[in-house]
Write a structure and sequence with these properties.
The structure holds 2 protein chains of 2 kinds. By secondary structure, chain A is an alpha/beta fold. Chain A has helices at residues 12-26, 44-49, 61-73, 84-87, 92-101, 129-134, 147-159, 205-218, 236-246, 261-272, 292-298, 303-311, and strands at residues 9-11, 30-34, 54-56, 77-83, 107-111, 140-142, 164-167, 172-174, 189-192, 197-201, 223-227, 230-232, 249-256, 277-282. In chain A, helix 8 crosses helix 12 (303-311). Chain B is an alpha/beta fold. Chain B is built from 9 helices and 7 strands. Chain B is globular and about 50 Å long. The chains are: A alpha/beta, B alpha/beta. Chains A and B meet through helix 3 and helix 5 of A and helix 4 and helix 5 of B.
Amino acid sequence: MKAFVDTGKKDTRSGFGAGLAELGNSNPKVVALTADLKGSLKMDAFAAEHPERFFEVGIAEANMVGMAAGLAVAGYIPFIGTFANFATARVLDQIRQSVCYSKTNVKIAASHAGITLGEDGATHQTLEDIGLMRMLPEMVVINPCDYNQTKAATLAAAAWDGPVYLRFGRPGVPNFTPADQPLEIGKALKLNDGKDVTIIATGHLVWEAIQAATVLEAQGVSVDLIDIHTIKPLDKEAVIASARKTGKVVVAEEHLVAGGLGEEIAGVLATACPTPMRLVAIDDQFGQSGKPAELMAAYGLDAAHIVKAALSLR
Amino acid sequence: MEYTLPQIASQVRRDIVRMVTAAASGHPGGSLSSTDFLTYLFFKEMNVTPETWHRSGTGIDQFFLSAGHISPVLYSLLARRGYFPVAELATFRRFGTRLQGHPSVEKGLPGVNQAAGSLGQGLSVAIGAALAKRLSGDPNTVYVLIGDGESEEGQIWEAAMSAAHYKVDNLVAMTDWNHQQIDGTTEDVAGLGDLRAKWEAFGWSVIEADGHDFPSIAHAFAEARTRKGLGCPVMILWHTEMGHGVDFMAGTCKWHGKNPSVEQCAEAMKQLEETMGDFAL
């Protein structure tokens, strides 16, 4: 199996901040809004260099979504930045009507997603956002895996004509994808070719899946490893082809089972190519305070749990 | 031929009642209370025509309807102004129509730039559009209409605070203050209170006017123009009557979202002069 090198831990939200800063200089139509979370979203560089195109909206997320929609109607490309909970559940109706149904070109940048938010606890640990966003017609859902991919996803989101939900996280995680690798929306990234079992992962779970695949390969289990950065539109062809090849599929994500990538893939495979599956995700419960790594282990989202899930399919 | 504003308004009211009767659903009450000042806005005030209109609004005045349920008055005005054929009013709420129950951009109806229906969202959108005009150096104005009942939505006051904070002074918001909502009067349902004091407390420049009297309407819009560029968003509070123009619909919440019977429609038609020619049913 190809070796993936961690070039140093970096938070994915900083990848967004770097991408936004680059867009600020390359595209005068890009504007940014935040709801009192400029620093947390790493929007400082954009705000400092383009103050006229940066709007601090205050703690008023619904208004922020609407303002972004109005800017988009007029031809601007607004990125709104806040925590994933406030970027989705709190403003679902505003996103549904003012963004998706109105086909406005709004990019929703959601940080601190998932259980790895850590110490803040369940009020802020959004585990439903992928489901909420992928249910909306018109919405593209991207959940990148590291700093470099998040930066590439930010650039790709700006180039995409239509609403995009861009999900990323708070803690530093291994940065291993190439710095110059563009992100093609809707195209799965094959990380390893194997024949015994398919492991599909998204977001922070991709690195865990790489660790799991390394362990499995050492045990003689050949792993077909796929990074799904674009949850919607899903690269169904890649998923089906891999399932046909291996006959066993594990899906790993930092989300509830309900509404998640695993459920979506199960739906695709149930109609195209019924395949035994295991879902590495959180089942119908809230998180709690703790350190990211201990929460990942406690809620069954780490490499060890992916290995176990894969072996249980044999 | 040139029609007077009262003649246009009378025809728009006929359209509203006939549309909701034909569709056997829809919202006549607030459509009728908003008819006069919106007639003035579309026929006299805004520097936009069916030929110059485009969704992005660059280089023209823009209108956002936030209270999307009063789509009948919007559709009638757009048709009567020439945005699309008057005959299309007969398709209101029917399967496949561009005249969806609540305004939609999905089928590309000219004159509609944003979906509305779930209340409270349009003021925020209008602020974004007004900020876009400021960014691009476009001197034109953004207008938005909200309902008085709609002002119970929290997002309206998020937007109110934001517009004042950003000194959005190329924005003219309007409230159709007809004192009625689905479940009763705005006082009984939610204690709406003194809207003027509320908007002024949020930093807005407020104008009050009779929303059914054309000289009063003209004066209010002219006054709003003089207040542009002075560092404050402008709110026109239109004093209106729900169901205005049809005696059995006037001044009550009962006709917020109820269609008349064919007989009631005929009775209403006796009270509203046909001036521009009814659309065919």
